[in-house]
Amino acid sequence: MIINWMSVGLVILILIVWFRRMIIKVQLQRLNVPPNTPLSFQRKLEYVKQAEQEKHVSALLFLTIFLAIGLLLTTYGLFQMEDQLHVVTERTNQLKDELYTLKKEQKQIINKLPIKAYPAKGIGLKEYPWDDLFSEENREKQYEIESDLSTKVSPYFGLSTTLIVLDIPTQTLNIALAGDSGSEENRQQIKDNVKAFAKEAKDVSKLTQITFQMNLMNDKEKKKTYSCTFSREKADEEFTLIQEEE
Predict the structure, then answer these.
(1) Angle between helices 2-30 and 39-112 in degrees, nearest 10
(2) Using an 8 Å Cβ cutoff, are 224 and 192 in contact?
(3) How many other C-beta atoms can be found within 10 angstroms of the C-beta atom of residue 33?
(4) Tens digits of per-residue pLDDT, 40-76?
(5) b/e sequence 208-245, b meaning 16+ C-beta within 10 Å
(6) Do the bridges between strand 240-245 and strand 159-167 make them parallel or antiparallel, or are there none, so unpaired?
(7) Can you give the pTM of this predicted structure?
(8) What pairing do the DSSP bridges indicate for beta strands 172-180 and 240-245?
(9) Which H or E run includes 211?
(10) How does pLDDT run across 76-95, given as a tens digit for each residue?
């Protein structure tokens, strides 16, 4: 920071000196001496011009030195900034590695936890401001609901990601749930939870379809996928299971 201010100060000083020398030079060049001017005055004027010319040369030397100093300071500042950027980059990479490790450990811990039964009172699907999603395609509100839903359903579906798909012309929406429960032992509980989720989702009038997909690991550590789809045509109807793959 100090180096930057010093560089700016040198540039300002160079400009001040240069403008001052230029003004003096222009003034001397515009000075017209009448033919009948005394010889002594003409000599003094020539002396002044010569003295100012020497000052121009001296000023030019000083400006060159100032420019060199400014260039050195700027170069040093760039090297220092590059070092700081390298440190920040290294720290960022380190934080990314730590975050990846934490996420991996978190996933392992969550995968070991048993899947809970879906609460009888639900998770409050009806309370979300679904109508706001259709007002000028409120993406910020959509991301907020998706993130909150993913957190709420994790105890009942395992690690989950929620995606809300809007259909603006028909004013309807779909909810897609995807995740990893970690164990095939949770299959039946997950199936029951999905049905309970679909039952609670009846109160969301604009919701027309629910898609669910979950990765399951068996005893031989082979991955299997369970998926199902619920749908309805009218807002007051119950959701019907139209597709299920195990």
Answers:
(1) 160
(2) no
(3) 10
(4) 766 777 777 777 777 777 777 777 877 777 777 778 7
(5) bbbbbebbbbeeeeeeeebbbbbbbeeeeeebeeeeee
(6) unpaired
(7) 0.55
(8) unpaired
(9) strand 207-217
(10) 777 878 888 888 888 988 99
